[in-house]
């Protein structure tokens, strides 16, 4: 299972909402129904595409409708699928996941949208989500990500949330966790760092150590080892875990 596979219709919906807000704010269109007329889509149908998918009557943004909107507005073909659609109407652009004010060229002013997933990773005994949908995004400075060794490319990083207190004080319950999704195999593991991984169909966050005999030691940062004992994965059973990413940063409420 890929816990970080984006639902393409949700990406289009999020992008379409942002695009409509931008062109109306920029004064290109006065109302949403003016936008609907410009892209030759019935205003009721457009409203249904913008609705939350849990609402009755909601419609997904189909490939045909996405391409139609792009053609009508003169946008880059396929941009609504990438969550990086650049609008010619506003004062800023989103390109390859990076938000850049058009009048500012300094890279310190560039911002990167990191997708937030509605997923909790076990910082305890285990947690499994039934729905792993993208749920908005957090914005980071591009130079902050670079200093952390992270790519600014959309899809190379993600935000999830901690569940439980086994990794306290490093990661607390409900903390936001920034993952480097490029780290996806055991060979990429740096001994002693914290990783998100799937084991027994549960997404977990733990500190992983490589042992000299090829086995792995999975540990919790909580000092209560009676409740949170270390786990050893022998070299013959390494296929039991699937690395999803390395934890780079966390943010949360003050304790």
Total beta strands: 11
N-C termini distance: 34 Å
Question: Low-confidence parts lasting 5 or more residues at pLDDT below 50?
Answer: 83-107, 125-132
Overall average pLDDT? 80
Shape: elongated
Number of helices: 5
What's the Cα radius of gyration?
A: 21 Å
Approximate helicity band: 10-25%
Oligomer category: single chain
Brief digest:
By secondary structure, the chain is an alpha+beta fold. It has five helices and eleven strands; from the N terminus they run ααααββββαβββββββ.
General description of the model:
The protein has 5 helices and 11 strands; from the N terminus they run ααααββββαβββββββ. It is an alpha+beta fold.
Descriptive key words:
255 residues; alpha+beta; 11 strands; 20% helix
Structural topology:
Layout: H1 8-25, H2 32-38, H3 43-50, H4 63-73, E1 92-95, E2 98-101, E3 111-122, E4 134-141, H5 142-147, E5 157-163, E6 176-180, E7 193-199, E8 202-210, E9 216-219, E10 231-233, E11 241-251
Parallel strand pairs: 3-5
Antiparallel strand pairs: 1-2, 2-3, 3-4, 5-6, 6-11, 7-8, 7-11, 8-9, 9-10
